[in-house]
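the two lines:
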Amino acid sequence: MTSVLIVVFSLGITEVSAGDIEVKNAWIRLALSGARVTAGFADLVNHGVQKDALIEVRAPFARFVSLHDSRVEGDMVVMEPQEQIELPVGKQVRLAPGGLHIMFRQLDRGVLEEGREVGLVFRFRDAGEVSVRAVVKGLGEMTHHRMKH
Amino acid sequence: MKKLLPALFILLALKASWLSAEEERLPVLAGVGGDFTAPSSLGYPVTLDAMRGKVVLLFFGYTNCPDVCPLTLSRVTNLMGQLKDYRSDIEVLFVTLDPEHDTPAYLKKYLQNFDSRFIGVSGNREQIDRIVSLYKARYTRKAEQQITTRYNRYGKSADTFYIYSHSQNIYLLDKRGRVRSLFYIGTPLEEVRKSIVGLVNESS
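prediction for all of em together
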């Protein structure tokens, strides 16, 4: 299974599109030793003339995948499940540490090695599905606009 | 009153950080904090009393948090890296809000990703709620099952899984276990570092 992933996803491109939706810079945070969860991120750009939404992500290494938003609200860190992530026309929506993210749970840990590229499938409400390569990386930094006071 | 507390905290934190910038003594934040006993990743219960003479950083989180908690722990790890000379004068307590998943043994394993000297605090729900209440912190939890975007590869229902929203405060306690300052995830590390050094250098 692992070798199949490597063959399929080693074509050397970091941007893919489903219809008018472009997916860039997808990455997955290296799961911590012992952790049952990790997070994934990407930049999504809607080049189309109508709004769309990310409604599902599938991963070969996680049993459950969901969309979340984490943000600081006053003195609270708020974690909120998202039914979908809206993609307004002409806008780039960032899934980034300390903000919108994909949560992966019940991990097949063997697949997640730093530097490796793994395949994800992003499904959009109107644009349909697209296969995305995501790089496994370290912790990452929080996006400052979401975290500052 | 309940709604006023967060605002009050922010004011106190601002005041505390201003004072630290002036290199004055941090005030004791009255009405926040207190001692507790709870099972820990050390394999035995911890109390603040047993940490007398050490400066303590205390904050809440949970290991099933995929995004913010690892970043907070990572920042505190970096901070401890900058405080190497004082490391034996400091304890870091990570109090889980999800004790059902985060047993003392599990916390020990998890925290080794960051700094093996970090102490994970667990217990039963009552013990956790008591600490939360002492520190005037808050949390809410939501069951993941309610989420329709969940992708389930095997079409089976998920086990019980909760996601938490919680106070982001990082409490700085002096050598006598008194809360002297509150920080947030986004507080510049240098500011936190200065405050810690100030407290380490206080006579206990």
